[in-house]
Amino acid sequence: MRFALLSLALLWALASQPSPAISGLLEVEDELAIRIHLVEGGAVRVMLPWSDGWMVVDEVSSFDLSPREGAFTASRWGRVGEVVATSVNAVHLLFGVKGGRGVTYSLFPAGLGGGRGSIVLKSPPGRGLFSLFYPSTGYLVLVERGIQLIVDPEGAMPLAEGDELILFPQRAPEDPPLEARVENWEGGAVEVLYLRSGWKGPYIYSSIGGGLCPGPRATG
């Protein structure tokens, strides 16, 4: 099944300001798109692959639109402008990197979150957006501000009341990773299995909490 994101603003932006990050994404198979209106009581809507329009699944309860700096450590390895982590009780959106740590906004179900960069929804964990509709990591994050569509979220900070977040799936890579083997110690090797090209690596932890670099396989 295919669907098109029905936003004239998005269509205009793609036509007038083509970007390698979002070109060719208007038709996506078997995925959903999400819109979140940043006002108290604002609708959280999804478009499903088989639906004819947007469906309300949740609403915004409260928010603090000051971005959260110094986010969780792994956020620095994400791509700015994408969903960097997701689960049934939080969705983290990476808007920038500062001082080696992510700058994020985060969606939370009722009773969780709070503080800078928090957007708390009305439904409890496991319900509403956090039931079947929360996005995968790698979703694009766009900001609609009036008639303007901002495709670089770093330039949209801080978010403003009345903005609308658009979370939009990207096409899967031609050679996606399927599996990883990790030796869980300093100097341990990491190998990654890709769909088409098979196993790659090993890569070696340069230090605990550090990055990966090519190297000989570590021995225990």
Describe the structure in your own words.
There is one protein chain. With 220 residues, the chain is mainly beta. It folds into two domains: 2-168, no CATH class; 177-214, no CATH class. It is 6% helix and 40% strand. The chain has two helices and 16 strands. The model is unreliable at 1-29 and 215-220 (pLDDT under 50).
**First-last Cα distance:** 49 Å
Poorly predicted regions:
1-29, 215-220
Please, how many helices?
2
Total discrete domains: 2
Strand content: 35-45%
Topology (SSEs and partners):
Elements: E1 2-4, H1 8-16, E2 27-29, E3 33-37, E4 43-47, E5 55-63, E6 82-86, E7 91-98, E8 101-108, E9 118-121, H2 129-132, E10 140-145, E11 148-150, E12 164-168, E13 177-182, E14 189-194, E15 198-205, E16 212-214
Parallel strand pairs: 8-9
Antiparallel strand pairs: 1-2, 3-4, 3-12, 4-5, 5-9, 6-7, 7-8, 10-11, 10-12, 13-14, 14-15, 15-16
In short:
With 220 residues, this protein is mainly beta. The chain is built from two helices and 16 strands.
List keywords for this structure.
ten-stranded mixed sheet, disordered C terminus, mainly beta, globular, four-stranded antiparallel sheet, 2 helices, 220 residues, disordered N terminus
